[in-house]
Amino acid sequence: MPGFGKPSALPPNIVLIISDDQAWTDYGFMGHPAIRTPRLDRFAHQGVTFTRGYSAAPLCCPSLASMLTGLHPHQNRITSNDPPRVGDKPWPPERLALRARMIDYYERSATLPRLLARRGYRSFQAGKWWGGGYARGGFTAGMTHGDPARGGRHGDEGLRIGRETMQPVFDFLAGPAARPFFLWFAPMMPHAPHTPPERLLQPYRKSTGSIHVARYWAMCEWWDEICGQLLDRLDSTGLSDNTLVLYTCDNGWIQRPDAPAFAPRSKRSQYDGGVRTPLILRWPGRTRPLRDERTLVSNLDLAPTILRAANLEPEPGMQGINLLDSAALARREAVFGSVYTHDAVDIDRPVENLEYLWAVEGAWKLILPGPRTGAKAVELYNVLEDPHENTNLAPEYPGHVARIRKRIQSWWPEGAAALQKP
């Protein structure tokens, strides 16, 4: 199992790589028959790879905020991408004011950059970012200005990273060697628009009858190349030796073959197509290559793992575990998650935006619907035997339903109670 060696005098550099809208199946190392991801395959073979990882939410803003804070959306109150709609115009002043209030939650949170600053870390934001300007999240430097008047919403200038340039990240990596760094690397890739280079698209045109699928597959390979560029720079500059690199995805994506859009049961859904992701860690000298296909892990575990690596204590509200602690991994019994509306109903009360709660315990996954969805049936799946959740076993295993429901009720009593309202 993974484990720490002796604490180093100099805390490690930390790089968090976050894929954007990619299914858990869509990598070579996860067994996809067509998508080529040689750089991430190599990285997975070098590190500790958990194949049963989960996101806290299947929507980018709350998912990313949960990684940044180590808190579930109902804890940090960042549950939706956007505030409630006001009137007929997309962004009238009243709605912009609500977004400003949503961003306030980033400033109120003990984010990773703020916590790491206590150990002297400098930090850089590159890519997808919903929290206004980078400084609102505690980063010491970054790309996103967050000004709505200049197109600020979910990354603005930061979204150039990967698709257009890597130079801002490379410049940051070349900064003062005396201080450790934290890099938030979240390019909007393979996220739509799916505009891969033709050199990557051409081979996939021959592999599928759908141009939409071909474009998405090529985007996954392009994303793999971008990750390779970052990993190569760490190697060539000698930074890799004392750098903890972590990899995950914000939420899933299943490409529709007939349109440039996601299919049901993927992004924004409570199914594994929306919330499952591989999770990888590599820290030379501290981890050894390992593929773990049994242990349940969560993106909520990233923050405690990063803080422990920096010799910092996790915040009291963090429910995740240190992924490099073998004993903590052995004790892990379940992971939990939630699904919320894309546009918030109430930015201050998470239960008003809640659609589903779910939990995975061993082989079993329970999904509880709320009144907002219109769904009535509780769903139970054996995700080891039925990974794509085709057969609802809830009627056959009422004991399993009752047991996991109790887990959910203990995890978030208010949310569980809200789902039972008519």
Helix content: 25-40%
Low-confidence stretches at least 5 residues in length (pLDDT < 50)?
3-7
CATH class: Alpha Beta
Count of the separate structural domains: 1
Largest sheet composition: 9 strands, mixed
Which fold name fills CATH's third level, the topology? Alkaline Phosphatase, subunit A
Which features would summarize this protein structure in a list?
single chain, 422 residues, alpha/beta, Alkaline Phosphatase, subunit A, 4-stranded antiparallel beta sheet, 30% helix
Describe the structure.
It contains 13 helices and 13 strands. The chain has 422 residues and is α/β, with parallel strands linked by helices. The protein has a single domain, classed as 3-Layer(aba) Sandwich (Alkaline Phosphatase, subunit A), CATH 3.40.720. The strands form 2 sheets. Strands 1, 2, 3, 4, 5, 6, 7, 8 and 9 form a 9-stranded mixed sheet that branches. Helix 7 packs across helix 8 and helix 12 crosses helix 13. The radius of gyration is 20 Å and the shape is globular.
Give the structure's gist in a few sentences:
By secondary structure, the chain is an alpha/beta fold.
